[in-house]
Amino acid sequence: MRENLDTFKGVIDTTLRDGQQSPLLFDTYTYRFGIEGKMAILDGLVKLGVRNIEFFSPIVSTSEGADFAILKDYIKSKNPDVRLLAHCRTHPKDIEQALTAGFDGLNLYMGMSPQSQNHNHGLGIAEITHRVRDTVEQLRASHPDLYIRFSGEDCFRTSLPDVYKVYDEIADLVDTFGMPDTVGIATPELVRKRIRALKRRYPGVDLECHFHNDRGYSLINAVTAVLNGASYIDTSVWGLAERSGITSVTGLLFNLFQEDPAYCEGYNLELCYPLNAIMGSILNAQVPPTEPVSVTNRTHTAGVHQGAVLKNAAVYEAMDLGRFGVTKNQLLLGPLSGWNLVYYYLREFKGYDLSKEQAQQITTDFKMRAGEIQRNRDPESVLMQVLEHYQLEKLPTEDTTGRIENI
């Protein structure tokens, strides 16, 4: 049993906040999720078992505020225990509008790194500390039961002494401290050290982590964070977020399950792939090949791989993706296919009676014409043209008259 199983409280999904900041929404001409798309995403998240969902503060735009007014009731009708969180600057206007909208909690943030101090808001660490302390004190006094998280934005480029100066002032006022890797510079070793340092200093405060993928480390950093005692990990569907994204919600659950299934208690894991497919239908795009929970992760194109998978998929498929909703694999006929797949395809799908030796010769001829395979001419068409030079008989068809199908 893992040491920090009881520490991890789950994901905080930010698909409808950071996810809408993804360049992929521009690449797909989507720009923002409409209300129906948001409902579909939320339905998938709630059914999966996500219990914390982050939104924009209504101050971002009137349309986001109007959408939240609808979505709030929609989510609560699905599961009243889902906590709805507003991503807010440490600014009175953001906070006021979020409270008026009826959020269950506020995710406050303010940049504390030298880059933020010098080139963003222009405040020094003493001024940041004063503003954060005053804001959180007033908020807690007026809303004693409100969930409050505070994050020092760009935490990994902020020195620990500066983090402590701010966090020490509010440790008894917040529920959670955020540790965001806003610009994606963190490594697993740095994550481990930071989490342990913050947990030692603030043992009574939960710790939330938000990892960007600028270095391709968001997923491994998130797993490292959980294994070292993080309470929450920010995620999104497909890892959609600013720039190259953050941690994928299904990718994280998939990997945590490999560490210890107990990390995933309360999640309906078989709904992971359907959630990814929902996003694909909204964006009219394929589930990314970098997403572990995908049919792509069970698709084989090389002849050696295909031949082995036809005998036993375990040769090239180590983990059970069926538990996560991926219920099939794919063997793609193409320039790299070997005779095993050609033999299987022609017998099982096309009904031809051929020997293995014939399949080997047909495969050689097929590969010689691989250059003909184009966008408007698929591999199957090329193979069938090759087949015209062979005198193959069809296998006897099964007589189905009088048979009752049990569907």
CATH class type of the largest domain:
Alpha Beta
Total domain units: 2
Number of strands: 12
Radius of gyration: 26 Å
How many DSSP H or I helices? Answer: 15
CATH topology grouping of the largest domain = TIM Barrel
Can you list the strand order of the major beta sheet? 1-8-7-6-5-4-3-2
Q: What structural class should be given to the helix and strand makeup?
A: alpha/beta
Mean pLDDT value: 93
The CATH homologous superfamily of the largest domain is named: Aldolase class I
CATH architecture name of the largest domain: Alpha-Beta Barrel
Please explain how this structure is put together.
The protein has 407 residues and is an alpha/beta fold. The chain has two domains: 10-283, TIM Barrel, CATH 3.20.20; 301-395, no CATH class. It contains 15 helices and twelve strands. The protein has an eight-stranded parallel β-sheet. It has a two-stranded parallel ribbon with strand order 9-10. Strand 3, helix 4 (92-101) and strand 4 (105-111) form a beta-alpha-beta unit. Helix 2 (35-48) runs antiparallel to helix 11 (272-283), helix 8 runs parallel beside helix 9 (218-227) and helix 13 packs across helix 14 (356-368). The relative contact order is 0.09. Mean pLDDT is 93; it is low at 402-407.
